[in-house]
Amino acid sequence: MQANFPRFTVAPMMDWTDRHCRFFHRLFTRHAVLYTEMVTSAAIKHGARDRLLGFDDAEHPVIVQLGGSNPTELAEAAKIAADYGYQEINLNVGCPSDRVQEGRFGACLMQEPQLVAECIGAMKAAVSIPVSVKCRIGVDDQDPELALNALADAVIAAGSDSITVHARKAWLKGLSPKENREVPPLDYPLVYALKKRLSDYPIAINGGIATFTDIHAHLAHVDGVMIGREAYHNPEMLLHIDPELYGKEAPVADAFAALEAFYPYIEARLAEGLALHTMTRHLLGLFQGRPGARAFRRHLATEGVKRGATLSVLRDAIAHIDRSIEQAA
Fold first, then answer.
1. Can you give the three-state secondary structure of the chain, one letter per residue?
2. Would you call 21 a catalytic residue per the annotation?
3. Tell me: the pLDDT tens digits for 29-40?
4. At the topology level of CATH, where does 255-318 sit?
């Protein structure tokens, strides 16, 4: 196992892991590695870079995920992202959405391992920080074992520093992105076999992982675990990452303390003209199983979206939670 490889990461998730979400998640764990949403190389080249790549230093350690298939453009985007201070560049070879397919990147690149290798090589030549890949085990009618091994061998030869594998196929036709996260069967043993074959190379696993029992079981076979939806919909699970996986104390005692620590950030963004709901939308998964959780969510969902909503909306929402009762495990 790789001693310095991150044991736990929060997955890149479109429309979810923006800078506000990442700042909030960081309040629960100092050691988990966070990812940006996928940002296309074309958007970085032609778009508003500060909006796309800007982040708070408090988010570290954080990795930027890029989407694209043009080696020259990806190299340029990687250099720009590295200059912003990200600790690593990750290439998306797993997203199955129609928009991604039209742009010839994401999961469809599982069918073009040599092109992925060219992209990795170009980015490695452009930056001094690590460059990695997040992929599927295959797409459509590919043989997963052949597809995954072909991609891994190609990108490793090109200099990729690690691979994170979402242990499902992606079906490019006939399934929605949501269905592609749930319907194709998971094949964890295939990822374990990849790690066994590439024993000295860092491999992380992703897909369908929700509990610490799951996490510890996977870490017996691979170097790292990536969790997406569970971390987003139940952010309080992040409170246990540092004690469980790193032997360190959690940075805050509970979700109430995390929210208190989030207040100054919210007030600063409100002063910049941002709407409250751009931040509070990431809080709706808090307090699962606790009396008042539904009222908390309802208050944020109805009052937080109103023009001119202030921090008092969040405080009022929290007041619905019964603090006298321990949260359900």
1. CCCCCCCEEECCCCCCCCHHHHHHHHCCCCCCEEEEEEEEHHHHHHCCHHHHHCCCHHHCCEEEEEECCCHHHHHHHHHHHHHHCCCCEEEEECCCCHHHHHCCCHHHHHHCHHHHHHHHHHHHHHCCCCEEEEECCCECCCCHHHHHHHHHHHHHHHCCCEEEEECCCECCCCCCHHHHCCCCCCCHHHHHHHHHHCCCCCEEEECCCCCHHHHHHHHCCCCEEEECHHHHHCHHHHHHHHHHHHCCCCCCCCHHHHHHHHHHHHHHHHHCCCCCHHHHHHHCCCCCCCCCHHHHHHHHHHHCCCCCCCHHHHHHHHCCCCCCCCCCC
2. no
3. 999 999 999 999
4. Four Helix Bundle (Hemerythrin (Met), subunit A) (1.20.120)
